[in-house]
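Title: Comparing notes on inverse folding

I've been comparing how different people in this forum approach sequence design from structure. To keep things fair, I'm posting one structure and asking everyone to reply with a full sequence. Here's the target:
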């Protein structure tokens, strides 16, 4: 495929140049010999082909696909077959392009096109719509043949691609929409396939989704949320609640996490999970994040005035979009200057997935944040596959252990082992750890025994309005039950934990080199 794509324009150029002298200047077409006419016809066909095909992949263009789709949509519906459109999009194309360069990106696209062409039938059209988006017209869909086609494409694309001798893994998502001839416009069918693709990405990528009414309703809701959010920002409908972070050994509050909420005029209070992803996508998160940062720092300054000398940290969630904004550092500086809070009392939370996929630019931003004295925490730690060497090099001082592991602390031995490993890892790397989502006394007690310093969760307090934090600052939110139990627990846990520490230390020693290859004594 790549050969065809690349060679088409070049070979056409050669034909055109060679043809010119033969046509004797401006001689009319009719004056040519039979073979000349045939050659000219060939040239014109080639020209039309070139115009209708993508020069890189050789696939039909968007225009040609639309033409064929329009044609199918008005055909006779008597054969009972339906018209399917499949949207295919690579999940990590940007990463390939950014990390391996555009040349490699082009190779991936050509290979992707070749594999898709290998999956389609003689009646189907696979086109390149732009970027890494390919659209397939499957005009005779019967007995879920469109789903089988989508599955074949997914399977073909998941095979690693060989790029300059190296295997590169890519995956794709597929969105499918269907209709009977005459029932929908091309535009609508394509929009529906795009909505389905979007849902496939949203539900974890590397999968296939079919458009249905539920998806339609969801897509409409998203559009509504986006529009309402714009009003919310203008009319100050967003507000912040604070969840205490508790020092386990004495129950005192050492900090709070700022969590945004939306007071919607008709729908009531909307949790961030329902609007932050939409805001992230449409870019409104930058404004939201700015408001939350300003408001929470202002709040901390208020508390500091109320209780001078009472140490308290403010933790604020920062989204990937925000952290990638070049203006973020300047804004952060401005907030610190305006509120006059101690930068070391501020901690910014960035999720593990964002941290691990951070570009050099983002890492530079993080370094600058650290230079200001502001702390950085890795949120939802343990949910991604963190590279230990990357973790070591990241300018983050705090690991927040994801709630999913705390849930199974007393019941799932696996979770207990994970929590214990994260605690050891944090300790070995000289980082602090905070356990999230503690809901029971038992979990709190276990975490304390395992050496966890700070935790947050419903067991201590739900996120609450700012004024409810003040009375909590002067009392303990829990009392570890008995010193004796603690002591015994430590002595049981001690050797295990020490053993674990050795393992981790040993392991860290080897980071950057495969185990066993470092410092191997020469024979
Ligand atoms: P997160 O940063 O992991 O925040 C913790 C979430 O867990 C909060 O949900 C909190 O209310 C909830 N939680 C705390 N303790 C417990 C517990 O014991 N049990 C259970 N089941 N849940 C607990 P919330 O407030 O709904 O926030 C959800 C997510 O929305 C946050 O997860 C964060 O990723 C995002 N978010 C919240 N505020 C902001 C913000 O200002 N900016 C950005 N970018 N994201 C935000
Ligand atoms: Ca968080
Ligand atoms: Ca979290």
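Reply #1:
Here's my take.
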């Amino acid at each position: 495929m790549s050969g065809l794509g690349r060679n088409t324009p070049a070979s056409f150029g050669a034909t055109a140049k060679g043809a010119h002298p033969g046509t004797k200047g401006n001689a009319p077409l009719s004056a040519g010999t039979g073979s000349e006419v045939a050659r000219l016809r060939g040239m014109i066909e080639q020209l039309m082909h070139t115009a209708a095909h993508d020069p890189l992949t050789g696939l039909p263009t968007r225009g040609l696909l639309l033409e064929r789709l329009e044609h199918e949509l008005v055909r006779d519906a008597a054969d009972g077959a339906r018209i399917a459109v499949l949207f295919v999009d690579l999940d990590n194309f940007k990463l390939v392009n950014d990390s391996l360069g555009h040349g490699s990106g082009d190779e991936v696209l050509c290979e992707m096109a070749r594999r898709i062409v290998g999956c389609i039938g003689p009646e189907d059209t696979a086109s390149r719509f732009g970027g890494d988006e390919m659209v397939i017209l499957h005009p005779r869909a019967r007995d879920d043949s469109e789903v089988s086609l989508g599955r074949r494409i997914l399977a073909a694309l998941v095979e690693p691609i060989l790029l300059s001798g190296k295997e590169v893994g890519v995956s794709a998502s597929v969105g499918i929409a269907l209709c009977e001839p005459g029932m929908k416009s091309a535009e609508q069918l394509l929009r529906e396939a795009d909505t389905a693709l979007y849902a496939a990405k949203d539900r974890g990528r590397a999968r296939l989704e079919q458009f249905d009414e539920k998806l339609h309703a969801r897509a409409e809701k998203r559009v509504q949320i986006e529009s309402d959010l714009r009003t919310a920002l203008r009319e100050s409908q967003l507000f912040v609640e604070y969840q205490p972070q508790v020092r386990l050994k004495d129950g005192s509050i050492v900090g709070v996490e700022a969590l945004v909420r939306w007071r919607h005029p008709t729908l009531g209070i909307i949790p961030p999970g329902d609007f932050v992803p939409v805001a992230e996508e449409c870019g409104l998160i930058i404004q939201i994040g700015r408001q939350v940062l300003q408001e929470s720092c202002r709040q901390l300054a208020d508390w500091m005035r109320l209780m001078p000398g009472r140490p308290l940290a403010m933790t604020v969630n920062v989204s990937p979009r925000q952290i990638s904004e070049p203006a973020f550092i300047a804004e952060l500086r401005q907030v610190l200057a305006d509120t006059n809070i101690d930068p070391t009392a501020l901690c910014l939370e960035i999720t593990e997935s964002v941290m691990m996929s951070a570009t050099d630019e983002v890492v530079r931003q993080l370094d600058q944040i650290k230079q200001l004295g502001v702390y950085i925490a890795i949120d939802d730690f343990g949910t991604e596959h963190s590279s230990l060497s990357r973790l070591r090099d990241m300018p983050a001082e705090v690991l927040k252990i994801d709630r999913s592991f705390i849930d199974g602390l007393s019941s799932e031995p696996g979770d207990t082992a994970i929590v214990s490993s994260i605690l050891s890892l944090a300790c070995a790397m000289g980082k602090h750890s905070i356990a999230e989502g503690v809901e029971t006394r038992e979990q709190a007690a276990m975490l304390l025994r395992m050496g966890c310093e700070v935790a947050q969760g419903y067991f201590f307090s739900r996120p609450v309005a700012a004024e409810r934090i003040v009375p909590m600052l002067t009392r303990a939110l829990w009392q570890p039950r008995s010193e004796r139990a603690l002591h015994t627990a430590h002595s049981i846990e001690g050797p295990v934990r020490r053993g674990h520490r050795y393992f981790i230390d040993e392991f860290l020693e080897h980071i950057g080199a495969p185990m066993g290859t470092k410092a191997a004594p020469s024979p």
